[in-house]
Amino acid sequence: MLGPVILAASRSDKMRRFVSAAPGTKQVVARFIAGETVEQVVPVVKEAVAKGLEVTLDVVGEDITTREQAAAARDAYLELIGQLEGLGLGTKAEMSVKLSMFGQSLEGGHELALANVRPVVEAAAAIGTTVTLDAEDHTTLDSMFAIHEELRRDFPQTGCVIQAYLFRTEEDARRLSEAGSRVRIVKGAYKEPASVAYQDKAEIDKAYVRVLKILMEGDGYPMIGSHDPRLIAITQELARSAGRKLDDYEFQMLYGIRSDEHVRLAAEGHRMRVYTAYGTDWYGYFMRRLAEKPANLLFFLRSMITKG
Questions:
Q1: Catalytic: 184?
Q2: Annotated catalytic residue: which of 58, 134, 172, 205?
Q3: Positions in the chain whose pLDDT score sits under 50
Q4: Which of 113, 211, 219, 243 is geometrically suited to a Cys-Cys bond with 99, CB 3.0 to 4.6 A?
């Protein structure tokens, strides 16, 4: 399977240099990345909202090695919030953050990440929106959940992400499916060992449905991160069985993938939020998108051949 190989390559500096220099890269990256600057992404947000969609914005970049870089990531989000403030979009535009960007992997990283993310969450709340903490590899999750719990004391609308392929996730879902919680469920996009995660696609799909059922039957607000038509249909059926109205949960899909489906679901009355990434440090995010679906990789390879 190519997925694990691509995920391994996402950590390789040599592959980073090769992919960045490839002739077709810019064209394919533009499919998944909405721009490099705040000024470029704001029109994308406006266009999405005009179509009846909502967005969650991610400033890409994970390879933080200094406290100065972590502070710069914090400031990039604060700049984004400053731009959103004048648009008056409320929760139609929220933010997703990876705590690795805020220094989580550095010495004293837990406290550093909390100190850097808190002003972002505060600023988001001040303009009427919120932040969701993205899940990363399994070694970071205890810290992420602890920071999530700490932030929710003052900002209960702060969301978090759980990954269906991890064995621990059903227990996490039960703990998180309380009133007022906001939880995004995804399949998972990191290379995880068989000791902590399902490796077979069918098993991951089954786990996704089990976790989704827990969230739908709970008292929180589920956010369904999937492009899979079968899982979308299952979500709708579970929501009906749980007595949920269309605004009691939402779908989330990635910018540049199944855009027609974004509009279709919104037209049916569903809340449909587009995960919209932007920034210059796109490599890790881009490689995970290639790993998730063979068609993405084929599109990239064809572009390289065409431009070469």
A1: yes
A2: 134
A3: 10, 303-308
A4: 113
